[in-house]
Write a structure and sequence with these properties.
Keywords: ATP-binding, DNA replication, DNA-binding, Metal-binding, Nucleotide-binding, Nucleus. The protein is 56% helix and 4% strand. By secondary structure, the protein is mainly alpha-helical.
Length: 218
Amino acid sequence: QLDLLWTRKQNVMYNLFDWPTQKHSKLIILAIANTMDLPERIMMNRVASRLVCPNSFEILLQTCHVSFQVAALSGDARRCLDICRRATEICESDSRKRTSEIVRMAHVTEAIDEMFSSPYINAIRNASLHEQIFLKAILAEFRRAGVEEATVQQVYHQHVALCRMEGMQSPTLSEIMAICSRLGACRLLLVESSNKYIHMRVRLNISQDDVMYAFKDK
């Protein structure tokens, strides 16, 4: 937090940003501030001259777009960082071809496509309408209950609610059991092996992020 390092003589900031300029230095300093114009507003020239300030309205806007794009697909911080890391690698590869120097949405989109490309996602996209609704119902039930396991009956209630919202006819319980069985057969679901019928417990065999990504354009 660069604002907190400010002193009247600015010796602390000067020394901090002078280190990376030393011969054979391998140090990189990344600093943030609460204002975009901090270097121009309060820094002496001898300090400001050692900074590379990427902040501009366009870059901040680009950063927000990237953040929203990633956050819309995953709430897992590790997955978000993986996406950003891969996007940076793609950008670096492009930079060697002299086509880009900063990470752009195209790099993020390419990284996301790589990370979420799997036979499971294709299976979801090629599933029947009610199979897709069943998967959405599972996500809805997981969010409601706060756990990643549910009974077929609980998912069925969510499925019926989603059908009503779309003005569609709801499947029967027998049809729901058949849907559950098909999704289990293609390994999208882990279905409890028992004779409990609608009280059988089901879990996703893939991450919720993958399911959400499969439905991204739907």
